[in-house]
Amino acid sequence: MRYRRCSLLMMQVKEDRGLDLQAVLQGRAELQTTLAWQAVAGHLDAPVVLSEEEVIALGRMAHDAWSEADAYDGCSEVLSGLIAKGLVISDEESAATFRDADARVRALNGWPLTALAHRAGRWRGVDSAHEMRSNNLVTAVELHGRYGPPPAAVSHHEGTPIPLPVAADEDFDELMSRRVTCRNFDPDRALPLQTAARILKRTIMAHAVIQPAPDMQILKKNIPSGGGLHPLETYAVVRNVEGLENGIHHYDPVSHALRRLADQPDDLDGRVRLMLAGQEWFVDAALHLIQVARFSRNFWKYRSHPKAYRAILLDAGHLSQQLAISATLEGVASYVTAAINEFDIEDTLKLDGIASSPVMMCGIGWRAQHLTTTEFDPAERIWNNGRQHR
User: Fold this and answer.
1) Which of 14, 65, 284, 303 has the highest local Cβ count within 10 Å?
2) Count of structural domains, the chain
3) For residues 315 and 233, is the Cβ–Cβ distance under 8 A?
4) Are residues 367 and 333 in contact, defined by beta-carbon separation less than 8 angstroms?
5) pLDDT digits (tens, 9 = 90+) for 126-172
6) Percent of the chain scored above 70 by pLDDT?
């Protein structure tokens, strides 16, 4: 058997606090702090607890060269344990799952810290709305009561301010002022197909395709992208769009077409709520758009680059604002959120979570006539005493 350390690995000390049982037996209530080594690997879905022996052993192994097991001068039980945990990669058939996942990480050419950050930051089955309500962290007043005042909205700088001219509002200023994130969608009003198609055209459709080589395409869209790579892939969850069958589709920006996936959830709204981490105020949108980062496309150019992952997140920001403005122009509402259950989306879309993984969800639909969930509309451009402006 041959072995080597996995390609991306970070060690951290995990600190847990709990009641000191020995002190409790003696009639005292005291906290006890427990320290333990924890490993986060680029190909594993969860951290792994390690012994000090295992930490030392990992520090003696190379990740880029195979070693023979009979040459390992440590304890064979430690080596076997690390193979079972997936932190040491073996060429044995029983370790094929870990080996294949690690091979995909190696082929990705990602910068280790950002690759680990994305993997470790994914959620599964989180109900963020329930947690906010349970901890009284829904309103600004509740947040202030728990955490105190936030940092100042604008940082202070010495010096004499130089007033700038304020231009008169134009049509675009009026459009921008009506861009308000929607938390109250009409669940029953269908979105016209032409409206949805125009928003996709202005947001994520490819308006030109450049082919520098027979097996290479560069897309021109209406949004900027780091290196012109456009690594975000869109999956459309159709909930109520005229002329389209409800379900999950893949959007092709080159042909401007949807392809319905073969496997569909039995309860579409329930699956959307799960993917949205319990944010039920977004579920009723007529069309949800899942933005999946294809890391392999971005890292093809930016190999092991410390800014590559940041560029992907900037791409997502550009896309969400373009979507919001395009929706507002059409008179419909929109939302965007990064609070998503990545694991559950990956399971739904059959993504490996390594080369492809979601970074945000957004959506469009008609706004409800009555305000049920609070929306941030301080200028009152949308709502008037809980009812939409006419």
Assistant:
1) 284
2) 2
3) no
4) yes
5) 999 999 999 999 888 999 999 999 999 999 999 999 999 999 999 99
6) 96
* Residue 204 near residue 362 (C-beta atoms within 8 A): no
Q: SS3 string of the chain?
A: CEEEECCCEEEEEEEEEEECHHHHHCCCCCEEEEEEEEEEECCCCCCEEECHHHHHHHCCCCCCCCEEHHHCCCCHHHHHHHHHHCCEEECCHHHHHHHHHHHHHHHHCCCHHHHHHHHHCCCCCCCHHHHHHHCCCCCHHHHHHHHCCCCCCCCCCCCCCCCCCCCCCCHHHHHHHCCCCCCCECCCCCECHHHHHHHHHHHCCCCEEEEEECCEEEEECCCCCHHHCCCEEEEEEECCECCCCCEEEEEECCCCEEEECCCCCCCHHHHHHHHCCCCHHHHCCCEEEEEEEEHHHHHHHCCCCCCHHHHHHHHHHHHHHHHHHHHHHCCCEEEEECCCCHHHHHHHHCCCCCCEEEEEEEEEECECCECCCCCCCCCCCCEECCEECC
User: Residue 22 corresponds to which tokens in the numbers above?
Assistant: 């020995």
Q: Are residues 196 and 295 in the same domain?
A: yes
pTM of the full structure: 0.91
**Angle, CA 345 vertex, CA 202 and CA 305 arms, to 5°:** 70
Q: Do 355 and 108 meet the contact criterion of CB atoms below 8 Å apart?
A: yes
CB distance 78 to 36 below 8 Å: no
- AA identity, residue 194: Q
Do residue 200 and residue 327 come from a single domain? yes
Name the one residue in this structure whose structure tokens are 């938390």: 183
Do residue 231 and residue 284 come from a single domain? yes
**CB-CB neighbours of 67 under 10 Å:** 17
Torsion angles phi and psi, residue 50, rounded to 5: -125, 155
Asked if 340 and 278 sit in the same domain, the reply is yes
Clarify whether residues 215 and 334 are in a common domain.
yes
Task: Write the pLDDT tens digit of every residue in 167-203.
Answer: 999 999 999 999 999 999 999 999 999 999 999 999 9
Range of the domain at 98: 2-108
Cα–Cα distance, 182 to 71 (Å, whole number): 62
Residues 175, 44 share a domain: no
Q: Does residue 220 form part of some domain?
A: yes
Which two structure tokens, joined as six digits, stand for 171?
A: 């049509």
Cβ proximity of 89 and 41 under 8 Å: no
